[in-house]
């Protein structure tokens, strides 16, 4: 994967990025519809292929919500992008809220890592995250969705960057912020992969704790 965090694609995770909208076409407004139809839509995408699947196949997969989905989504890519945005929005809203509770950089990073693990393991346990894992794999083979996914992810990552900037006085060199940001984005990505492979919460917490030793190296000594 590219080292530039703006191109890292992680379905972490959903993903609201503090912009509640009244626009009926926004995914946060259509969330209940997206949740209802996403399983069947992703299933037909996988069985027939995103490109080979016709719009009729797609709309049929929406069942009783067909008319509503047809009204708001004119293409399959629009719908997939809405799922991705909704997922990232929810995920990063949780992480931003968690980080905001801490005025110490180490405590904030630790809390974000732990919260991320809890969210992802929770999705795994209730099978909610499986559909996003499938969509993530599809995104890697579709340039349009890959670009949108990277954009949504970068929008979420900026909140982690802001936390590092706010607490830069705790670092030996504030110029290391981008380096640390990319490092912890990589840690989040790695944790997500381990969650999908079935690792337990306790083991994941241990790996998160190991990553905090890297932060210690860049922090000012008491």
Question: SSE layout and pairings?
Answer:
Elements lengths: L30 H18 L6 H7 L4 H7 L3 H25 L4 H21 L4 H10 L3 H24 L10 H20 L4 H18 L4
Provide a quick synopsis of the model.
Helices cover 68% and strands 0% of the residues.
Q: How many angstroms separate the termini?
A: 37 Å
Question: In one word, what is the shape?
Answer: elongated
Helix content: 55-70%
| Low-pLDDT runs | 1-25
Q: The biggest beta sheet, please? A: none
Q: Which value, in Å, is the CA radius of gyration?
A: 19 Å
3D architecture notes:
The structure is a single chain. This protein is mostly helical and 222 residues long. Helices cover 68% and strands 0% of the residues. It is built from nine helices and no strands. It has helices at residues 31-48, 55-61, 66-72, 76-100, 105-125, 130-139, 143-166, 177-196, 201-218. α1 packs across α6. The longest helix has 25 residues, at 76-100. The chain is elongated. It starts with 30 loop residues before the first helix and ends with a helix.
